[in-house]
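Hi there,

I know you've been waiting on this one. I reran it after we fixed the sequence typo, so this is the corrected version. Both the input and the resulting structure follow.
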Amino acid sequence: MDGESESSKFWMGVLADLRNRGVKDLLICSVDGLKGFEEAIKASFPKAEIQKCVVHQIRNSTKFVSYKDRKAFCADMREIYTAANEEAGLASLDRFENKWGIKYSYATKSWRDNWQHLSTFFKYPPEIRRIIYTTNAIENFNRQIRKSVNGAS
């Protein structure tokens, strides 16, 4: 069994457990690229929308950007995910791609290839978008639990 199907099988079990506990449906799932998770969500909760974590996308996009380009690169990238709506976000992505696509094609290609799941949050009011587009709140909560359980300060 390859890693992808093994991961999907694991997540299918987790989501089946949620169903067994009474969860009928999920509106939106903020994910950070765990192998097999998106497929398992779609299989278990077909109506659920997927939102890839924009913060993880930003980190992955800037990983290999030179120090001298980083400030301008990040400012241009910020225009994508802070746009007023998806149409404006796509226009910002086009400008970002035109400016940085040759030098940092891996980053612009990643935004383009993942747009379907990076742009889901635009369907929701601006007041809640920040909660939806990142998994950081969940990660911080889990970190606090680990600290409590492990007795770390």
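Quick highlight: The chain has two domains: 1-52, 54-128.

Best,
R. S.
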